[in-house]
Write a structure and sequence with these properties.
226 residues, 82% helix, 2 domains, mainly alpha, single chain
Length: 226
């Protein structure tokens, strides 16, 4: 583990910094455009502020979508950088090629990750905070003397901490799923799924697998012969 951490710090630290720089530049553009449109709204003559607000909303929406797209590409390009030892730009090109060849698989994985990560992030803090409230308030010997705010401070702290921890675990889990997806698809492309279990190969779908041949119909053959 320490050896691989040393490899990351030695060979891929610049890749991480470059990808983060791109996202930071986009966020800076978002802040600058928001400040610019806010200034224009305050100094707009007459009733032109509504038009400026509409244009500002459209621009911010486009920038937000662009930032999310870049973050999505970064997550896959980092995997290619670590797996195939390529540069950041090469990893981005391989990510585009992967999305063009397997659009359905990537879309399904992203949807499943979003649903499961949302369930994990929502249910875990609720369960932890509810358990903390029941244990430290209702089951305590001096529960009757607790005030309403005092009884909610500790469950509130548990809710915030469990939310942060569950979101961190969900992020790691999402990255692990993406890494496994890239490794499986690379194995299918380069080695025909030689190192995969048959169940996993069937789950991901083998594009090189030939479709089943149609069985010959004896009636049709007899008609052709006639």
């Amino acid at each position: 583990m320490l050896t691989h951490l040393g490899w990351v710090l030695r060979y891929h630290l610049g890749t991480l910094a470059f990808g983060s720089l791109i996202v930071a530049v986009i966020m800076m553009v978002q802040l600058l455009t928001k400040a610019l449109f806010t200034y224009l709204e305050k100094n707009a003559p007459g009733g032109n502020s509504a038009v400026i607000k509409l244009v500002s909303s459209c621009v911010q929406c486009c920038l937000w979508c662009f930032k999310k797209t870049v973050e999505f590409i970064n997550s896959y390009s980092y995997i290619y950088c670590f797996v195939e030892n390529v540069g950041f730009c090469s990893g981005c090109m391989k990510t585009f090629s992967l999305m063009l060849r397997y659009p359905a698989q990537i879309a399904i994985n992203a949807s499943v990750q979003l649903v499961l990560a949302t369930l994990l992030t929502v249910t875990t803090p609720l369960v932890c905070s509810t358990g903390a409230f029941m244990y430290f308030d209702f089951l305590a010997s001096d529960a009757a003397t607790h005030g309403s705010m005092g009884g909610l401070m500790l469950p509130g702290a548990v809710l915030v901490l469990s939310l942060l921890m569950s979101r961190a675990f969900a992020s790691v889990w999402e990255q692990v799923i993406q890494s496994l997806t890239v490794c499986v698809l690379l194995d299918i492309d380069n080695f025909d799924g030689r190192f995969l279990r048959p169940s996993m190969k069937d789950a991901f779908g083998d594009p090189k697998k030939a479709p089943p041949a149609e069985e010959a119909d004896p009636k049709k053959e007899g008609l052709i012969a006639k």
